[in-house]
């Protein structure tokens, strides 16, 4: 059909540019728009048998002397791996490379590529291995640490400079991280000492472990103090003083006015509580009761965003917008004076004492995991409990399921597995740490899976169902654990079927079970996954995990540790399936 023809034309165009219009090479490889890349033997091309689409292009050691036309290359919609190792390719990596959204492996080592690595590389969210070694690249590295699944980065023997981003070194194999023989400077980021010094040698300005060169101590406060204030600084400080004065007058004015407004606010608060409406509202979220309590009663656990301090009074004064009213209480987006956005949960009280609530919050703060959103601060009094989080602007898994797609991520099989594995890991880790204290999530659902700025899944509102009585009734945490496993199973079903659940999770489980019983298993899978080339075997495996999690008998459900291990196995097998053999 015409789409396939357009893809062939683009790929042939890509090869022409890559070879520098060398017709000899093009003929030798047998690429022609008149033939099919999958069935007519285009050399260097591998197709996905199920979808008959190109997923790997391997053109190594062919003496290619042209440039990379990423615009044309990325027309192949299922392209997962590209290897152009050991040619004489010139020019730069074009920014359009980010259009190859499914790319997992990109090997460009041993060419004559130059310029800096384009920042758009960081948009390749599925990338696992990037090899740019033995070229003539210069400039600073883009923040490749943003790509959470990156397990290989080879950049040795170039002229790259600047500092090394804070990679998740724990993910890298020794052989698969190498920035040696460049012009990098500054300290090796934390975790780099897990690797061998051969990964870093040959950078004259680089210091810290595993290199034998210690980093110089950073200048102390005393040194700073002794520095004379320059004229510009003096002007700047007098500016601050003036600003401080204006703020002081403003706050005094507000304080006088607040007294007058208190009465109106109480009425407005009661209105929120009674209608539960969501949407924009200039009505402050704080109750009179909360404003009247001591200003020191906000317990800050973590500094939010760029803020140096978070004060209860500032929180009360900041403009708030209602985001919704759920089972646990109401949620407000609060914008602080410096522009930092916070999400404040006002918990519907369930009889937990302030002391018990505080104990739970502090206990949870000790059990952090990258896939669990930590509370920034909390406030508890007998009348009111508030929990403050950082606002996550990329929305939730629910919004992805509802089709509010974000440009920066393809909601494809690989991403869905990443979400499933991240949530499973986070939940399992929290269970390990907190179930002994009877603290489970208690309200896990896709609207509580938020997406961080690098689109990693992050569980929010862990442990806010502070009904200790239900935990005791359930027998020391096992019922809350089984309920969380069930909820996780529903999330897996949502990922597999593409159908979001809002009110009745068991209905989705019942429907899936009935289809599976009739042996129409494939019918349950999201059409977008099937047409996107997701492997049926992998989807069936994940479905089996989901069905075990939603087993009607809580005692028959696996533990979260076991579930996380099963999900990881599916993810690893799928990675291997799509992974191209290492060149
Ligand atoms: N920290 C946050 N940053 C950005 N959005 C958030 C944050 N926390 C929650 N949200 C989003 O705000 C909306 C309202 O959240 P809320 O918690 O009130 O609803 P809910 O999850 O349906 O209810 P509940 O968790 O109380 O049962 C949801 O769409 C949720 O995804």
TrEMBL record:
The chain crosses the membrane at residues 234-256. ATP binds at residue 345. GO terms for molecular function: ATP binding; protein serine/threonine kinase activity. This is (wild Malaysian banana) hypothetical protein. Residues 317-570 form the Protein kinase domain. InterPro entries: Kinase-like_dom_sf, Leu-rich_rpt, LRR_dom_sf, PRK1-6/SRF4-like, Prot_kinase_dom, Protein_kinase_ATP_BS, Ser-Thr/Tyr_kinase_cat_dom. PROSITE patterns: PROTEIN_KINASE_ATP (PS00107), PROTEIN_KINASE_DOM (PS50011). SUPFAM superfamilies: L domain-like, Protein kinase-like (PK-like). GO terms for cellular component: plasma membrane. It is a single-pass membrane protein. It comes from the Eukaryota.
